[in-house]
Fold this sequence. Notes:
Layout: H1 10-14, E1 23-27, H2 32-43, E2 47-52, H3 55-66, E3 74-78, H4 84-97, E4 103-106, H5 124-148, E5 154-159, H6 183-205, E6 210-216, E7 219-220, H7 230-238, E8 247-248, H8 250-253, H9 255-262, E9 272-275, E10 278-279, H10 293-296, H11 298-312
Parallel strand pairs: 1-2, 1-4, 2-3, 4-5, 5-6, 6-9, 7-8
Antiparallel strand pairs: 9-10
Helix pairs in contact: 4-5, 5-6, 6-11
This protein binds NADP nicotinamide-adenine-dinucleotide phosphate.
Amino acid sequence: xxxxxxxxxxxxxxxxxxxxxxxxxxxxxxxxxxxxxxxxxxxxxxxxxxxxxxxxxxxxxxxxxxxxxxxxxxxxxxxxxxxxxxxxxxxxxxxxxxxxxxxxxxxxxxxxxxxxxxxxxxxxxxxxxxxxxxxxxxxxxxxxxxxxxxxxxxxxxxxxxxxxxxxxxxxxxxxxxxxxxxxxxxxxxxxxxxxxxxxxxxxxxxxxxxxxxxxxxxxxxxxxxxxxxxxxxxxxxxxxxxxxxxxxxxxxxxxxxxxxxxxxxxxxxxxxxxxxxxxxxxxxxxxxxxxxxxxxxxxxxxxxxxxxxxxxxxxxxxxxx
Length: 321
Ligand SMILES: NC(=O)c1ccc[n+]([C@@H]2O[C@H](COP(=O)([O-])OP(=O)(O)OC[C@H]3O[C@@H](n4cnc5c(N)ncnc54)[C@H](OP(=O)(O)O)[C@@H]3O)[C@@H](O)[C@H]2O)c1
């Protein structure tokens, strides 16, 4: 039995795996954990599509990985999760290019940004982190089911965060129309949505062999902190034992995503929240690690699924098994 933990790296969790012939899509693959996740999957032989919203950053990431002569093929496409029309266009092109998808890593994210709205008027963090990924995944489901049709599971990995503890999903006012915007609460709500989505998706697609997981990658110094000020940094550090944050390197940070996507130990399982390359325990009210009960609640997961279908105007996203 393989044993992994906080310090495990992408290279360690994927060692010995052969992903040749498999197709993986990684969102937010122009920076941070997305690039490293793409590197690990292509390193094991998968064809990997790097997806991001900024063409120049995407091309730079693609050039970096291509220069490493990885065994897997590398492709790229533009995807802006904050515009559902663009998401539809991107999914259409990808379905044409990839009639079969084995792994979808919904990694892109924004954190604690000033108040903003997506092209369709959703609060920016919920809109980018959850709603865009919800529509994108639903549109790709035929290809994911085709990926699973050869007897191997297809997997969807949704990047959540320990920050999900900042807030449950506020079903009364998810888009901050009636309450004052608070950037950390909004991040927490969006990261709770990532877990609820994993639970609801897994319930609907496991019969077709498509399994879904939510991941907390750890604390890693990336561009995600671009909206954090000194006060935010101090408050975050203070929340760690001894006031010292336990950071991971980028290869350690992407390891749980890669483990979720490829671990044989997870076969036949899904709808789970993972951290440090294992299935997380239930969290206490104030604990930094583990998963809050509200994020795994199947009733809330179904409610968010229905609401998300209304938001994206798509009612055939998948039926519950
Ligand atoms: N780093 C951490 O400590 C940490 C902790 C917990 C959870 N996470 C989660 O891990 C995931 C990856 O984070 P990271 O640390 O790698 O952050 P990052 O370095 O900022 O990378 C985020 C990626 O998402 C992309 N993105 C942002 N908005 C987008 C949009 N509207 N459409 C498409 N792509 C978009 C970014 O593109 P641009 O470069 O164009 O902005 C970038 O490629 C996120 O979901 C985050 O919430 C990270």
